[in-house]
Amino acid sequence: MRPLNLLALAAVLLATSAMAQTPEPASAPPDVPAAAPAPAVSPEAALIERGRYLAVASDCIACHTAPRGKPMAGGLAIASPVGEIIATNITPSKSHGIGNYSEAQFAAALRRGVRADGANLYPAMPYTAYAALNDADVHALYAYFMKGVAPVDTPTRETALPFPMNIRASMKVWNALFLKDQPLAPAPQRSAQWLRGRYLAEGPAHCSSCHTPRGFLMQEKTNLALSGAQVGPWYAPNITPHPTAGIGTWSQDELVAYLKTGRVEGRAQAAGSMAEAITHSFSKLTDEDLRAIAVYLKETPAIGPDSSTPPTLGTRFEQGKAGNALAQFRGRTLAADSPEEIRGARLFSASCASCHGYNGQGTRDGYYPSLFHNSATAGVNANNLIATILYGVERETEDGGHVFMPPFGDQPNALNKLSNQDVAALSNYLLKYYGNPDLKVKPEDVAVIREGGPRSPLLLVARIGMGVGAVVVVLLLLLGALMVLRRKRIDPEHDWK
Asked: What pLDDT does residue 335 have?
């Protein structure tokens, strides 16, 4: 026998010996039942779950659920530049919700802003973004809202915008001008991750609805997409990858962390409508989808500041430094004619320093953020700083995180109700010592944010236009009557009967 065969025989004998010495696997004790196989998920249940995830990605609950109200039952008053818009009941209630909607009617409301009765919705409902949703996702959303949401047979009050904005038919003209009721353009050269991020950001997550500035007719300025816009009392900042005006210095990991938790230490903390989006939507998405959104945002066209934007020495995340200017104001009494800075220093010491630190440094764990290197104190305007003081901050995340800063405005739970003069003084103190000192806040600026944000001149112009139109019609009628009278005088024997 050749050596190779001897080695093979030895190997077989060793293997057989090892098998003989291996003990039998221990059987389970008789009193421990075998693990039951996981129940199979039905196709309908899987479809409803897909629709639920899409509804979360679309943040439907944030607008269609009133404070302490039932989910999706409507009733929330949404501030807009032309007045309050009341969110409707979108539960499957057949008396007060969308329970009688066919799938085609549901799709028309979602993607074209047309209700089942043919009336037009206002674009506070971001149907201009939802127009990008594909048919399969619309089908899944319909299944979820009809079978996965509890019906609530409760009416909501009607939206009552001032005339002429209450004429819903005018939205037909607006839609003809600005609604792109079509899917996103193909981009075969792009990666699947980028395409997924674009679909989520431009469709369900409707990022442009808040972060893109609006034109005179309240349409999105697509040439300035994602470059920052005022949304009620809050300012949605530039989220293009511009190195100074936008988020060009952010890494993909930081973007994912921000969307998941609402904060990135030394950069930004989510408040207002973005905090709601973090709480109800982004924090509940998968890491893969958050990463896809980050990839897409990092590759959008970078848009810099316009000529009216005050120059800065860097990004809005690098302004200010730790410091304490309180010593120079100690012992100085506050009187009606005292410098504003004394009022601001006293307010900071009494209302801010206990949480944010005497140097504005925040806490080590970042729960109370630093006031310097903070986008709220160094943006293109001070609106978010004012709004934070007036409305406070509250957000929650899936990992159990809860952030709360009490408001100092008119709310019942306001820790200390500050006047417009107080908020202006405090804001200017914070801007001077911890942020962008070129920004200045006047009491009139605070009043605008307290009232829900800037108003659009569109309402006034529309009323003037309709008034001018009415005058023209009256003049034409008078002119016609005068011509008739003139003809009577010229031909008095003519039969005018």
From this structure: 63
SS3 content of the chain, % helix, strand, coil (to 5): 45, 5, 50
According to DSSP H, which parts of 58-159 are helical?
60-64, 103-112, 127-130, 135-147
Strand residue runs (E) in 98-233: 229-231
* 3-state SS assignment for residue 311: coil
User: What tens digit of pLDDT does each residue of 321-366 get?
Assistant: 998 877 777 767 666 667 888 899 989 998 999 999 999 999 988 8
Spatial separation of the C-alpha atoms in residues 238 and 256, rounded to whole Å: 17
CB 449 within 8 A of CB 228: no
- Spatial contact of 140 and 47, defined as CB atoms under 8 Å apart: yes
Return the pLDDT at 426: 96
Residue 65 gets which letter from DSSP? B
Which helix (H) or strand (E) segment holds residue 427: the answer is: helix 420-434
Are 378 and 435 in contact, with CB atoms under 8 Å apart? yes
Task: Answer whether 456's CB lies under 8 Å from 448's CB.
Answer: no
Q: Is the pTM of this model over 0.85?
A: no
Quick one: three-class SS letters along 347-386?
HHHHHCHHHHCCCCCCCCCCCCCCCCCCHHHCCCCCHHHH
Tokens of 469: 């139109």
For residue range 186-220, what is the model confidence (pLDDT) as tens digits? 999 999 999 999 999 999 999 999 999 999 888 99
